[in-house]
Amino acid sequence: RSGTELKSLNLVGDLVGISDTFKEYATQFRAYFDSPEPERAPLPGKWEKLENFQKLLILKCIRPDKFTNAMQDFIAKNLGEQFIEPQTADLSLVYKDSSPTTPLIFVLSVGTDPAADLYAFAEEMKFSKKLTAISLGQGQGPRAEAMMRSAMERGRWVFFQNCHLSPSWMPSLEQLVENIDPDKVHRDFRLWLTSMPTPKFPVAILQNGSKMTVEPPRGVKANLLRSYAQFNDDFLSSCTGRDAEFKGLLFSLFMFNAIICERRKFGSLGFNIPYDFTTGDCNICVSQLNMFLLEYAPQVPLKVLHYTAGDINYGGRVTDDWDRRCINTILHGFYNAEVLNEAHKFSESGVYYQLPHDAMFKDYIKYIKQLPLNDSPELFGLHENANMTYAQNETFAILDKFLLMQAKTGAGGGKSQEEVIEETSKQILAKVPQPIDIVDLMERHPVLYEESMNTVLQQEVILYNTLLSLIHRSLNDLLKALKGLVVMSDALERMSTSVFNNSVPDMWANKAYPSLKPLGSWVADLLQRLEFINGWNKSGIPSVFWISGFFFPQAFITGALQNYARQTSISIDTIGFDYRVVPVTEVIKEKPKAGCYVSGFFVEGARWCHDTHVLTESRPKELFTDMPII
């Protein structure tokens, strides 16, 4: 992939010939690739004289995992540090611009809950006793309407949470807001709303209201700032006689909360299932910490705190046993007697440590603000490669969004969108073969009781033929639509956009096997799969099956079990697999008498050691490694 992208850079202005200089500067480019901070490392030769934006293009090709960091440096240099620093919500600024007729709307995202921020702001504004809240849902509409009418007369605040859960009442809410008379309504009245993005939310309220996007903080630094933003010195001193223990365990709790929230970004390496922990989970742990320290004085009830946090407040959301074990193990590192020691280190590097017991609120904020913006994987107990996987995925997601904002018409002599789509469509049509002759295949591989793999092959070919027919038919229709010979339907319009953006069209993906590849790589993978199927068809059952080439691998696994069950006359329900990793020195010429040889597996987060025949640590920058034949 990197080689293909570097060749593409040869067509860009001052970068002409860059791929040809890799031999000349091989040592320097290798050092650039291996650098822990390539975004700040010098480029070899004349390429160091390029502008910063052009250097971004080179970095994206060689080290895409550092592209986001480079963008942060680029933005900070050209716009200012404030555009990359995490910002905490300031409701006072929004409130100043509001009026009784202007609703204040929180647009929610997964894992966020602005209720605590609003309650704290109401306390600050002396409105805590004049704030009434209700979570909308079935049957809550009339009650909410009565609360709103009363609040308009008495000058109170009303807080309607989760508007997306009451779509049928939204027209009534729209009418209530439109009918607010600015001359009659109390000047202190305010309407606060929260909702996930939904097409059912009234457009008029959105247009006339003050909108705030509430997103979960990204990074340990932002999480810690968000956690402390809702407290002050009075709260830190609220655990009378136990201030030192409370401050120490509170900071430790916030560190734990930040780490398990951020583990989600590592995908399956973080948790088997992604969980949406919210600020509410952390806040209830804070309340319990304060309560139990006072109740169990002078002891520190670590077992009680560990149980309530790990098995109830956070653990209550966890459905996977291994994830629960992981969370409890992490919690042990943050809820223990050692964290109460001053200068206790939460990471091997010593960047994250416990503050002195006499630290004030401003000291915590000052310390948090000097923490690194980007987290190190060692804080999470993960290998450096885990961060590369996350960073690459983030880079590609950002660039995909850039593509969506791209101009639809050519400029400056470049090809127009229609020309690119037509050229790409013709290239795919030329590469992708016609459907396989199913009649000929069934004669070669008839359904046999002794050989279930023949049935598996027939099912695979039927599925691939359906996909191949769709690809040819849709591409031909698209080419005709581009020439004006047929109507450009909505489906063809969406397909043309996908082809232009190098993504797999939805109509193909719905009929295809699961894949995350971009269009170019997806077509190459499809051709490789068809080569495997055609080889099986013409040369007979292979000695080694490429499991990645199956449309529906579950059928192949069942077929292997069925073959063994029929050979041995044992019920298939009582049979399971045993596994043996074949040494790379062993030559395979024919299939085994029982079972099957399988290739195509790979490992993430580890690698197979050919010398010791066990799983071992990954090498640096080696994200995925192929397994030997099994």
Question: Would you kindly provide a brief summary of this structure?
Answer:
The protein has helices spanning 2-9, 26-34, 52-62, 67-78, 91-96, 115-124, 141-154, 170-178, 203-208, 220-229, 233-236, 243-262, 279-295, 302-313, 321-332, 361-369, 384-404, 417-431, 438-444, 453-482, 490-500, 506-509, 519-539, 553-568, and strands at 104-107, 131-135, 157-161, 190-195, 210-213, 544-546, 597-599, 602-604, 607-609, 614-616, 624-626.
Notes on the structure:
This protein has 630 residues and is an alpha/beta fold. 47% of the residues lie in helices and 7% in strands. The protein is built from 24 helices and 11 strands. The strands form 4 sheets. The chain has a 5-stranded parallel sheet, sandwiched between helices. Strand 9 and strand 10 form a beta hairpin. The protein is globular and about 85 Å long. The two termini are 28 Å apart. The model has no long low-confidence stretch (mean pLDDT 87).
Could you list some keywords that capture this structure?
630 residues; alpha/beta; five-stranded parallel sheet; two-stranded parallel sheet; 24 helices; 47% helix; globular
Which geometry do the CA atoms define?
Answer: globular
Structural class: alpha/beta
Number of strands: 11
| Poorly predicted segments | none
Rg computed from alpha carbons, rounded to a whole number of angstroms: 30 Å
Terminal-residue CA separation? 28 Å
Mean pLDDT: 87
Strand content: 5-15%
Largest sheet: 5 strands, parallel
Number of helices: 24
Instruction: State the helicity in percent bands.
Output: 40-55%
Widest sheet: strand ordering:
2-3-4-1-5
